[in-house]
Write a structure and sequence with these properties.
This protein has 7 helices and 9 strands; from the N terminus they run αββββααββαβαβαβα. The protein is of the alpha/beta class. The chain has a single domain (3-286), classed as Nucleoside phosphorylase domain (Rossmann fold). Strands 5-8-7-6-9 form a 5-stranded mixed beta barrel. Helix 5 links the parallel strand 7 and strand 8 (215-217). It is globular and about 50 Å long.
């Protein structure tokens, strides 16, 4: 069975549980943010272990479940947790879930993550909108033969594709509007992805700042690359769960990352409830 066949098999397994629900919007929840899925009125909750070929989350703070349901009256598919290369997964395995979401007909995805804040002025617990990214993971999930059948949307699936607008400007505008309605401002930042699992050194953070990064983390970029290959619009949101190495006197720990994520969950859930109908209306208008 080829990789494409495995994706199709996993998508078919999920599709038969959707019933009449056909979500065009997906949400991926990062470390410590999984309880945001509680805002969804579920029609189905499926552990990753019950999905054929699906990689299993092994990191604390990643529940490893897919939640189908309604969020603010909009059908959505939510991933509670993701997998990473530092868990021992290959690039194809890391991005397998995003491929499956694309096969299910997704047209837009909100990728959330826990990130270290590099920019001066960032506060722990702050939400930051991604305007761009820098890939310092040492690999690209699209290496190898191109599979044009992953171009589920018109014009997608090309070997070479444009990344000038990796994170959708229209969706970012809707996000800023929704944040304003929720009473807070969303700054835009540049996310730099490393392979992990170790946190960065102070010297690396100084180098990343020179490169133009304002946030650092260990995920999101592979999913963005694969989503854009499939023609899916991407909105990226980082939760600043810690100040990056050298910017705080406190040692970095994954436990603190999860704790700050839990503190922000309520605000993120309220924000997504306000944002999701706007995204749905935008997608409908573009048909």
């Amino acid at each position: 069975m080829t990789y494409y066949d495995e994706v199709a098999d996993a998508a078919a397994s999920l599709d038969c549980r959707l019933g009449s629900l056909a979500p065009a919007i997906g949400i991926v929840l990062g470390s410590g943010l999984g309880a945001v899925a509680d805002a969804v009125s579920p029609t189905a909750v499926i552990p990753y272990a019950a999905i054929p070929h699906f990689p299993q989350s092994t990191v604390e703070g990643h529940s490893g479940r897919i939640v189908f349901g309604m969020l603010a009256g909009v059908p959505v598919i939510v991933m509670q947790g993701r997998v990473h290369s530092y868990e021992g997964y290959t690039p194809l395995e890391v991005t397998f879930p995003m491929r499956v979401l694309g096969a299910l007909g997704l047209r837009a995805v909100v990728l959330t993550n826990a990130a270290g804040g590099i920019a001066e002025g960032y506060r722990v617990g702050q939400l930051v909108l991604l305007a761009d990214h820098i890939n310092m993971m040492g690999w690209n999930p699209l290496l190898g033969p191109n599979e044009p059948r992953f171009g589920f949307l018109p014009g997608a699936g090309r070997r070479f594709f444009d990344m000038t607008e990796a994170y959708s400007k229209p969706l970012r505008a809707l996000a800023r509007q929704s944040a304003e309605e929720e009473g807070f401002a969303l700054e835009e930042g540049v996310y730099l992805a490393t392979a992990g699992p170790s946190f960065e050194t102070p010297a690396e953070i100084r180098a990343f700042r020179i490169l133009g990064a304002t946030l650092v983390g260990m995920s999101t970029v592979p999913e963005t690359l694969v989503a854009r290959h499939m023609g899916i619009e991407v909105l990226g949101i980082s939760c600043v769960t810690n100040l990056a190495a050298g910017l705080s006197s406190t040692p970095l720990s994954h436990e603190d990352v999860n704790e700050i994520g839990r503190q922000v969950e309520g605000r993120l859930a309220a924000f997504l409830k306000r944002l999701t109908p706007k995204i749905a209306a935008s997608l409908k208008a573009s048909l």
